[in-house]
Amino acid sequence: MDAYIAELLGTFILILIGAGVNANVSLAKTGGNDSGYIIITAGWGIAVFVAVFVTGDVSGAHINPAVTIGLASAGEFAWSEVPGYILAQLIGAFFGAVAAWFQYKDHFDITDNPSAQLGVFSTAPVIPNVLNNLYSEVLATFVLVLGVLYIASPEVGLGALDALPVGLLVFGIGMAMGGTTGYAINPARDLGPRIAHAVLPIIGKGSSDWNYAWIPVVGPIIGSILAAILYNLLPF
């Protein structure tokens, strides 16, 4: 039970900070309005660092169904624990998004841009192209999970400092690979907040774009399994 609570808390922290930086950059009349993509990628990297640092010793701080599935596929985590972890991650992501919305509610109310409002919660492709968008999420998550598998391994891991390389890994993925789809690389990170967007009373909001929503769920899962397969095949 402690591990599930930790996953919920860790994913809550991840989305609270991540959606918060999205809101600060994208919504009208915030202190960080239009401060740019580097601020967003740095904010998400720090969000991962804090979430992993707080919960890593309790649950391993997966905070991501793709990481949970990748670790299980590699034989590093029990499949019996996977459903509970994923449910906790989705709940934490939903409430993290709700908390970020409530903090920035005044700015949501004066933002006359439904796409910017949705972008606080979930990802979207810059150029809609199903194959390329799916490939982008598969590839970025492949890099994430392969990196996590080595960072978390007893031979390579850095003990209590695991949070730092994981945060830097996410920051680097965002800088290098996030320009096409917004690098969800985490089904809970996209789906939980997207559900929040759909149910919250946001003034002037548009569609939650459910036609696209399967890509940041399916893509990361495929990428995580491919990373686990390669990890088990490599001789080092």
The stretches of 5 or more residues where confidence is low (pLDDT under 50) are 155-160
As a percent range, the share of helical residues equals: 55-70%
How much strand? under 5%
What is the count of distinct domains?
1
CATH homologous superfamily caption: Glycerol uptake facilitator protein
The level 1 CATH classification is Mainly Alpha
**What's the mean pLDDT score?**
95
Distance between the termini: 34 Å
Name of the CATH architecture: Up-down Bundle
For the biggest sheet, the summary is:
none
Task: Give a written overview of the molecule.
It is a single chain. This protein has 236 residues and is an all-alpha fold. It has one domain: Glycerol uptake facilitator protein. The protein is 68% helix and 0% strand. The chain is built from 10 helices and no strands. It has helices at residues 2-26, 37-59, 65-73, 82-103, 105-109, 114-121, 130-151, 163-177, 187-199, 215-233. The radius of gyration is 17 Å and the shape is globular. The model is unreliable at 155-160 (pLDDT under 50).
